[in-house]
Design brief:
The chain is mainly α. About 80% of the residues lie in helices and about 0% in strands.
Length: about 170
């Protein structure tokens, strides 16, 4: 693994850790992280051109997360900060890691999201059943709770990917 990739991995791990803490504490991801990541991406285009290029492949996941985030925000399932942060995070993620990171992020989301849904169902089973009988969908949505902070899932995914890359 090159020194640049090791630096990027460590720097981003620390950054995602800080973002996760703020996301849990304040339920918000600052746009400053996106600006920092986009600035870092531009610098990495010159510092490590073997890992960072201006190609459609480079922007595939970033733009996908913006689109999914827009739809998720419209459906009130995802906050806008999550998708903007993922957009910028995939720019800084070396292209050779994109597929691995996306796969791990998808698995982590399914595990944490599934656990969250099952927990809410178990805690509110009787209410949900009663609301379902009378067709009160708003009550069912309220029983399922609000969105969970997503940055800790990103952190878990980054750590999992790093474990596979370095160990």
């Amino acid at each position: 693994m090159s020194n640049v990739l090791t630096f990027v991995y460590a720097f981003m791990f620390i950054q995602i850790f800080m973002v996760a803490i703020n996301d849990v504490k304040y339920r918000k991801i600052s746009n400053q992280w996106m600006i920092l990541n986009m600035t870092l991406f531009v610098a990495l285009l010159f510092i490590a051109p073997e890992h960072y290029q201006l190609t459609t492949e480079t922007f595939f996941y970033s733009l996908t997360f913006l689109l999914v985030g827009f739809v998720g925000f419209f459906l009130k399932i995802m906050g806008p900060g999550d998708s903007k942060y993922l957009f910028s995070l995939f720019l800084v993620t070396p292209l050779v890691w994109h597929n691995s990171f996306f796969s791990v992020l998808l698995y982590s989301t399914c595990i944490i999201g599934g656990f969250s849904i099952l927990t809410q169902l178990a805690q509110n089973y009787e209410k949900i059943a009663d609301y379902a009988k009378v067709g009160y969908s708003k009550g069912i949505r309220e029983c399922m709770g609000s969105k969970f902070p997503y940055a800790p899932v990103i952190l878990m995914s980054w750590a999992w990917m790093g474990h596979h890359l370095y160990f």
